[in-house]
Please model this.
Amino acid sequence: MRAAVFCGPHCIEVTDRPDAVVQAPTDAVVRVVLGCVCGSDLWYYRGESPHTLGPIGHEFIGVVDQVGTEVRRVAEGDFVIAPFKFSDGTCAHCRAGWTSNCVAGAPFGTDGIDGGQGEAVRVPFADGTLVKVPGSGHSDETLRSLLTLTDVMATGHHADVSAGVKTGSVVAVVGDGAVGLCAIIAARRLGAARIIALSRNPARQTMARSFGATDVVAERGDAATEAVLEITDGIGVDAAVECVGTAQSFATAFAIARPGSIVGFVGVPHRVEVPIDTMFGRNIGLRGGAAPVRRYIPELLDDVLNERIHPGLVFDLESTLDGVAEAYAAMDERRAIKSLLRIGTV
Amino acid sequence: MRAAVFCGPHCIEVTDRPDAVVQAPTDAVVRVVLGCVCGSDLWYYRGESPHTLGPIGHEFIGVVDQVGTEVRRVAEGDFVIAPFKFSDGTCAHCRAGWTSNCVAGAPFGTDGIDGGQGEAVRVPFADGTLVKVPGSGHSDETLRSLLTLTDVMATGHHADVSAGVKTGSVVAVVGDGAVGLCAIIAARRLGAARIIALSRNPARQTMARSFGATDVVAERGDAATEAVLEITDGIGVDAAVECVGTAQSFATAFAIARPGSIVGFVGVPHRVEVPIDTMFGRNIGLRGGAAPVRRYIPELLDDVLNERIHPGLVFDLESTLDGVAEAYAAMDERRAIKSLLRIGTV
Model:
């Protein structure tokens, strides 16, 4: 089969790899229909975090092609969503809903595990991992939105859930990448009364507003803090949602969070120092991490299928598998919010 | 009036100070009956954090002696509890319950504000700050427990609330100081199913068990982590409660917290580095700070008056105001868990 591989910083190639096959009785093989590039893929692409040379990509949806003898919940021909990590569904962490912390889990597209940027994927613990999509004949728009449930939409949702967003909340979303934009969708879905998007990019500001942002702050750093405080009568926001992972975005999130609130974070932190004295003095919490996507998929899936949310709109570039290098480059250079890969057919 | 003052590291004296008098129409003057020394007082006592030379002590209960013309909720002769910080009760943060973050508030016994380790205290914003104790003729045991509601018991409670302790939780309390011991009382009160006390001091272990600890771990560092993981079948605790504020205690709290849980912290952090990568990777939150004591007093007061909790037992040394220097020294040298000062009569 053909699959994208990481060959070093700024090097993505499509090569022939051994066909994905069932190796354990709990495995399934999924033929990939759509895949995409994640903002977190850019860290290794840019050489800023390590990554094994080999298969890549942890977001994909597709059709079950083969199942092991012990797989019960999905069958050949099922259209399925895979969370970005596989999980056994049975360990204490999975049972508590923290599927991204499964003791037997790992992300797709790391350490030689098949990636979603390829024609097929061996999925360990298929019953604990895959979610079958009901119905058939879904529109391309629906498929694009289903693809976001593998990571980006669920991650934006996790940022809001971590920050305690609820009905009536005043929320600020720091970061206008695909995760930040999905966090806006999620905040509106959770009933936020006011959603302040921090974005300086006109196209992303427009998308933010279409997703539910009520205010846009284009400033950065101290000026952004001042602007948010002015919007909130000097009080700060009920929930600050950090969707970048840099020192500046964390600093802004803590500066605009009102006392007693929680900063929700889902951007993989890079060179971030947590302001523990501020947290103590102003009673600001910090909560987040790798989203337990498998737990969130069912509720978000329902909203996608009923067309209540349209997260697939974050994809503003698409290509075939052969175009994967450009798909990375466009996101790296911020020419694209998020790149979709059309790999197979339903 | 006579009051204790800080005269430099390891120097506490009792001196004559100007009598506390009503200065603003919202002030009250409280004649102190009982005061005490806080674990956080030891930081400046040891020269490890700055403190203005002058009045000290932020925990006191007493009798209202005088009220300003605009004070409505307390009157001369009322027996009252003062939270460790005064708060106006009307700002956005107070209205949201975050009284320790009042925009007009400050701790007693700092920057020249009267301290609770003295004969009387001018209390700004008396209506927003003081809580009247119903009834009269309370026993000495009850008075001692009421004194803990000014800070230490409310702070232990805040640690548990911050960590999300609820019915059935498996909780670990890191720290066997007065706050840690009160956090055990609070955890049981909140319905924890299992409470693991980390303590190596036999007397404190005994008190921890009497307050509701079901398990005691005497080890420290990695050995403590191993012991807690063994107790919890390798899973970790549902809520880790950090009541010390050192790098080691934070590290232990994060190491024993299960994925998806929250570390609640109330020890003033000193040279602590927050393990942001661990937080992200294991989805462990961090929440806490200076307890919103004023908000918590009513519910805890009810439990003290109905003898459901007995936090006054943490006082294991007592003296008059003249003995205040020894009261500090005994805590500094860990000869006492917490020192009570008998200053006036009811």
